Amino acid sequence: MDKTVQVRQRGTLTLPAELRDKYGIRNGDTFRLVDLDGVFVLTPMVPMVPELAREIEKMRQEAGLTTQELLVSLREQREAYYTEKHNAQSDESEQA
Fold first, then answer.
1. End-to-end CA distance of the chain
2. What are residue 31's phi and psi, to 5 degrees?
3. How far apart are CA 23 and CA 3, in angstroms?
């Protein structure tokens, strides 16, 4: 599809209604503009938090964990990661 848009006051661009309808673009939707050496690409900014929360909840239920058990496990994993990362950095510093 090849459409022409015009830059208006304050840099406003109007997307053709056909494209807005086709892709379900509504007032207030947010996009990222990527400049590829003069070729502009618009990509929708999709809110990921609700989707990720649903996926985590699904996995928690499938694993048969309570929310409290999940949080305890998360803390343990975070501590293990922190310990592993900082011990590795300390070992590198000592060898230098």
1. 59
2. -130, 155
3. 15
